[in-house]
Amino acid sequence: MSLWGGRFKKVSNIHFKKFNNSLNMDYRLIKDDIKSSIAWSKILLDIKILTNCEQKLIEKTLKWILKKYICNINEILSSDSEDIHSWIESTLVKKIGKLGKKLYTGRSRNDQIATNLKLWCKRKSNRILKEIIKLQRNFFNHASLQQNTIIPGYTHLQRAQPITFSYWCLAYIDMLERDRLRMLDTIKRLDISPLGSGAIAGTSWNINRKKLAELMGFSNCTTNALDSVSDRDFILEILSTASISMMHLSRFSEDLIFYNSGEANFIELSDEITSGSSLMPQKKNPDILELIRGKCSGVYGSLISMFTLFKGLPLSYNKDFQEDKKYLFQGLDIWEDCLKMSSLVLNNMKLNSLRCKQTAQEGYSNATELADYLVSKGISFRDAHHISGKIVIEAIHQNKYLEELDLLLLKKYCSIIEKDIYQYLTLESCLEKKNAIGGVSKIQTKIALDNIEKRLISLEK
Ligand code: ARG
């Protein structure tokens, strides 16, 4: 039976009923609806709508429902209830009779769904935050091991300056740290309970909304009921956070897809996470990385769908909102999955250090060092840049590295150059010179690693 039977003389058209139902989506809110319902029952006890015994029985039955059905979702889905709220209500009433109906005093599905969605976001975010920390740890493990592995750093996908693989990992740890902090901030803002807002204008019962919020683990309650039942900003925020993080994961994937290419050949992905071609026997494809990169679109799609869904809606609740679950769930499921898959990649790849170093050596990535050397001898950087460029052309012409050019030849371009230039031009020296905060030198890398390690240890507790 529907929740509004009294006002209607005819039953719903079966096609409309199917179209209107959201149970196949919002069954995922079962835990949250039961949590908020138990809290509500306690408030009904405070205002004497329920007796002590009645509240206890309702609470016990709600917990029983959760335990019985959480592993039996198909049974929920086979019911013809409109949504998870009505399903819980009818299951409760079936079990304890009329008393079950009392639970719905003063509460609307409008404040119920807004509350449940926030509870769901809080639960999901805990899992996601753990995955972010795990992924940071996996980057950290590589970063500790690969402090001496030199790779070329790129701009415009052209070899620019040498870096280390460790340093590359540290860059992603920093990106993920911003994602983590953004997520915490998002959660802080959504941690406000809408329950007790009623349908749109508040509840006529004299309830303690702050206590109600606390009972569900919220830090406070909302201040305007009209806004509370129609606010879905938190979905936009959480999906924006997810989108930014997915953008990071897509760049990570792209870097590794390139590192794994035959042309770069810096890394090898284990057989366990690669797949073959049905036609070309030699192929070992980085599908996992391409999928992370590709699935990013699903999260952006969710975010844009949400913006489109909410745009221009009149206050307050509109049934359009029912569609929000689909995109919220889709976006955050993809994000969680891709974080897990990124960890899997890091745990299943090997570095080809020799090849990395050779490539770093090949691209004249020490040309900036040559210019800096000239500057240290009193030449202006603009002139030094020009002279360096000429020497690079000479080296290309001779098919040699800069450090292989003869001193006499170098002197032809600038008489100031002395023997000490060769020390300057080694990759190691290029790295070691970058010793200001955030640079690639061994010392700075060590400082970054120590800070990250401390943070990770405290987060993993
Ligand atoms: N299934 C609905 C939703 O997800 C629950 C709220 C229904 N409220 C209403 N006034 N029809 O938005």
From TrEMBL:
Q: Name one GO cellular component term.
A: cytosol
Enumerate the GO terms in the molecular function aspect.
argininosuccinate lyase activity
Which Enzyme Commission numbers does its entry carry? 4.3.2.1
Species for this entry: Buchnera aphidicola (Cinara curvipes)
Q: In which pathway does it act?
A: Amino-acid biosynthesis; L-arginine biosynthesis; L-arginine from L-ornithine and carbamoyl phosphate: step 3/3
- Annotated GO biological process: L-arginine biosynthetic process via ornithine
Q: Which NCBIfam families match?
A: argH, PRK12308.1
The name this protein carries in UniProt is: Argininosuccinate lyase
Query: InterPro entries from the entry?
Result: Arg_succ_lyase_C, Argininosuccinate_lyase, Fumarase/histidase_N, Fumarate_lyase_CS, Fumarate_lyase_fam, Fumarate_lyase_N, L-Aspartase-like
Gene name, Swiss-Prot/TrEMBL = argH
- Per UniProt, residues of the Argininosuccinate lyase C-terminal domain are 364-432
Localization (cell): Cytoplasm
The superkingdom listed in its UniProt entry is Bacteria
Family the entry assigns: Belongs to the lyase 1 family. Argininosuccinate lyase subfamily. In the N-terminal section; belongs to the lyase 1 family. Argininosuccinate lyase subfamily.
Name the Pfam families for this protein: ASL_C2, Lyase_1
Q: Which reaction does it catalyse?
A: 2-(N(omega)-L-arginino)succinate = fumarate + L-arginine
Query: Per UniProt, which keywords does this protein have?
Result: Amino-acid biosynthesis, Arginine biosynthesis, Cytoplasm, Lyase
Database matches in PROSITE patterns: FUMARATE_LYASES (PS00163)
Q: What is its main location?
A: cytoplasm
Q: Which residues form the Fumarate lyase N-terminal domain?
A: 6-301
